[in-house]
Write a structure and sequence with these properties.
Elements lengths: L3 E4 L17 E4 L4 E3 L4 E11 L4 E7 L1 H7 L1 E3 L3 E3 L5 E8 L5 E3 L4 E9 L27
Antiparallel strand pairs: 1-4, 2-10, 3-9, 4-8, 5-7, 5-10, 6-8
Length: 140
């Protein structure tokens, strides 16, 4: 599959797959951005993409960034019709300031086929083994 992308800024780093077997392509910070403890900010990438129709780009954490550095992404669905800059919403879940330096890997995107559901309003839903149990209802 070919995916067109555009650098919106001369300092933007092209998205890349670290290895041929990686599912996600890495996106990097366009500029230095400081996040204070529990602060949420957009991290600019300087990249726009043309995700093929019938597909979606899903933004996921980089495991090293989230586990080792305490920086997690908070959203990340890119529809095929979007042509603007890909910005990644990150939150610093540590008690120390953190800096994403220009060029640092921030998050990764996985391209997947999109299914559009046919939504049908009903008065009742069918029974299931789980039923209405949620939030830990299936075990400890």
């Amino acid at each position: 599959m070919d995916i067109k992308f555009k650098k919106l800024h001369e300092d933007a780093k092209s998205p890349t797959y670290a290895t041929n077997d990686d599912a996600g392509m890495d996106f990097c910070a366009l500029e230095d951005t400081t996040l204070e403890p529990m602060e949420r900010k957009l991290i600019r990438t300087g990249i726009a993409m043309e995700i093929p129709r019938g597909h979606v780009g899903l933004i996921w954490d980089k495991s090293g960034v989230s586990y080792k550095k305490g920086q997690i992404k908070t959203s990340g669905v890119l529809d095929s019709g979007y042509r603007g800059e890909i910005n990644i919403v990150m939150i610093n879940i540590t008690d120390k300031s953190f800096i994403f330096h220009k060029g640092d890997k921030v998050a990764q995107m996985i391209i997947q086929e999109k299914i559009t559901a046919n939504l049908i309003e009903v008065d009742e839903l069918s029974d299931s083994e789980r039923g209405e149990g949620g939030f830990g209802s299936t075990g400890k």
